[in-house]
Amino acid sequence: MSLAAQAGQKLFFDSNLSGNKNMACATCHDPAYAYGPPNSLSVQLGSDPTQSGARAVPSLRYKDATPPYNDVAANPDNVTSNAPGGGFMWDGRAATLADQVAMPLLNPVEMNSSKAAVVQAVQNASYVDLFKQAFGADVFSNPDAAFADVGKAIEAYEHEDTSFHPYTSKYDLYVHNKIGGTLTAAETRGLLIFNSGTIGNCSACHYAGANFDGNQGLMTDFTYQAIGLPRNDTSIPNNPSPIPANQDPTYYDMGLCGPLRTDHQPGTAGIATPDPYCGMFKVPTLRNVATRGAFFHNGVLHSLVQVVHFYNTRDTNPEYWYPATGGTGAPIANPSYALFPQYASGATVQKFNDLPAAFQGNVDEELPMGTGDGGSNTLGSGTQPRAQGSTPIMTEHDMQDLICFLNILSDGYKPPATQPTSGTCVN
What we know:
This protein has two domains: about 5-165, Cytochrome Bc1 Complex, Chain D, domain 2, CATH 1.10.760.10; about 165-315 and about 355-425, Cytochrome Bc1 Complex, Chain D, domain 2 (Orthogonal Bundle), CATH 1.10.760. The chain has ten helices and eight strands. It has helices spanning about 5-10, 25-30, 95-105, 115-125, 130-135, 145-160, 170-175, 185-195, 305-315, 395-405, and strands at about 70-75, 85, 225, 280, 325, 330-335, 340-345, 350. Keywords: Heme, Iron, Metal-binding, Oxidoreductase, Peroxidase, Signal.
């Protein structure tokens, strides 16, 4: 690796960069967990342990091909119309990986440091000479520039160290026709469901084809979607990890339109009313998705079983996912994967309860959630949800096969000496 990348590696694992000298980048972006969090918390505790973030920590793998944010970004599939895409963080507000580094470092509920403190920590570090070799002997003469160089060093490390983009999954062996890449019957069916525009439709956003800069199989098109997630708060019975910020009923995290991003907020000059950006969050890669313990920007779901069922039943059975009021009938038990264990017949479901009603027209109604199968598929565009109480588009068998496929996207796959002949993901 270059000198800058070597310095970046040291910085990435240095807990002295945080305010309480107890948190490194690697604390939340653990290499053993695909550079994602090592636990199932919806949001991670900060350097100040009385504080926690407001969004789930994403994996840092396969970020090297991400383009800067653009309101009218080209889609790598060369078919879909230009739309918001690119950028780093869940709302794309960082243009580069170097820019992204500063955000957790300076956030008081994350690493809780300052530019001056970070630069001082580097000056006191055992690797200070390496940092000077990379950025010049007088690098500390301008503290602001030195802080920017910290970001550049970590960016170089993420670009140059192949552990951030290893392409060592069973899926990679399969697409490159390598030994050990033969899919089982269940995995093959799952792949077909993933790609099917009339069943799973996952590839509509989690694009697996040729991507920017010659990359392929990134499992994202870098776009933004509003999928109407449940609010991660204490209304969910036995919620293991509600987001503290959601204790304020007037607080809404709406992604592209704020509050952390400020250039698309409602009322901003040149932005339509109602604001079309509200509720939209970046589509993440699905590589290593099976290693995660919390899913989506608010970490409200905690297993792939929940995630796949949410997509399949969000509209047909919203009572599984959102709180409900009223109802006169006897409680009806919901499935074990549901967020809400029971539902009273006739109750009114508070659907899309993490997005103000004024912006719920932005919610995606593309298959399998709604009925859209191409083009603009939001409620506001007239695309209809699947009717409550109707049959979901995927069967239980379909969903199990899809989960089998998602599991082969995990890096570090070692082909077994003999292929299994039985098991959930075999036949």
